[in-house]
């Protein structure tokens, strides 16, 4: 005996079909832009990439299902790169550098249209490498090792920014994290720097000793001049007066003594003690 078949009303089938189509349509028509991101809208039947309007910001968006949205990170990003470059005398130098960059927000559509999503490989990396080769090639290994690291950092940044700024990108900073020289060159530079330091210390000691000797000569000359002036100013009358002043002070002492006024050969008092 045949089992009766369950038949759904045609209206319910139609509603279900419409709901499924609407669900598919909706899933294809929505996009969520995450934190620190922005979306570039591509209109399939409306002129392609939208460049004359701001990109889609963070949050939920509904777009036509035949259009596309390309999502870009627009917060500050860091790119770390190890590069081998040549110094001014042709030696291999390894440079470790970091670049801080981000896409220019309002030009995101132009960036997508003219360069594309892989703009880091197409623009930023080649530009940094080219700038690094150009800048490092102006300096000797000794300059790179000791005094010029900050200078090359600034120069690489300026040369990179000049190109990247015209490509809808913002370059915030380039940091030189390490400069690695061949071991033999590094050791030779360190020996030279040590010798220069020792030479500077020796020169400093010589200068210090010379200044001390000059100081002592000046002090001795000052004392000699003072004694000369004092000797020239002392007369017999002054000496007698000084002797009398000293005698009076001694006379006030409680120790017993005998004072003979005018007993000395120069007319000064004689002081005779009790012993």
Automatic annotation (TrEMBL):
Intracellular or extracellular location(s): Membrane
Membrane association type: Single-pass membrane protein
GO cellular component terms attached to this protein's record: membrane
Transmembrane segments: 6-26
Signal sequence annotation: none
Keywords linked to the UniProt accession: Membrane, Transmembrane, Transmembrane helix
Major localisation: membrane
Keyword Transmembrane helix: yes
Protein name: Peptidase
Natural source organism: Urechidicola croceus
Band domain: residues covered: 28-193
ATP-binding in keyword set: no
């Amino acid at each position: 005996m045949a089992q009766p078949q369950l038949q759904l009303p045609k209206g319910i089938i139609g509603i279900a079909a419409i709901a499924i189509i609407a669900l598919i349509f909706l899933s294809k028509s929505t996009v969520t832009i995450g934190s620190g991101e922005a979306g570039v809208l591509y209109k399939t039947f409306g002129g392609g990439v939208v460049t004359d309007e701001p990109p889609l910001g963070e949050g939920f968006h509904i777009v036509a299902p035949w259009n596309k949205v390309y999502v870009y990170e627009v917060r500050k990003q860091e790119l770390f790169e190890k590069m081998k470059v040549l110094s001014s005398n042709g030696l291999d130098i390894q440079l470790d550098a970091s670049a801080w960059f981000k896409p220019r927000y309002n030009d995101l559509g132009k960036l997508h249209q003219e360069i594309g999503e892989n703009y880091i490989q197409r623009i930023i990396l080649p530009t940094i490498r080219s700038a690094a080769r150009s800048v490092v090639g102006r300096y000797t290994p000794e300059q790179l090792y000791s005094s010029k690291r900050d200078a090359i950092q600034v120069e690489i940044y300026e040369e990179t920014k000049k190109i990247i700024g015209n490509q809808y990108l913002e370059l915030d900073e380039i940091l030189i994290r390490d400069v690695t020289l061949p071991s033999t060159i590094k050791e030779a530079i360190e020996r030279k720097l040590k010798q220069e330091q020792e030479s500077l210390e020796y020169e400093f000691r010589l200068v210090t000793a010379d200044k001390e000797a000059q100081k002592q000569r000046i002090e001795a000359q000052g004392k000699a001049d003072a004694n000369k002036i004092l000797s020239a100013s002392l007369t017999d009358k002054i000496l007698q007066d000084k002797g009398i002043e000293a005698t009076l002070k001694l006379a006030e002492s409680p120790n017993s003594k005998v004072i003979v006024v005018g007993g000395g050969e120069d007319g000064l008092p004689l002081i005779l003690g009790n012993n």
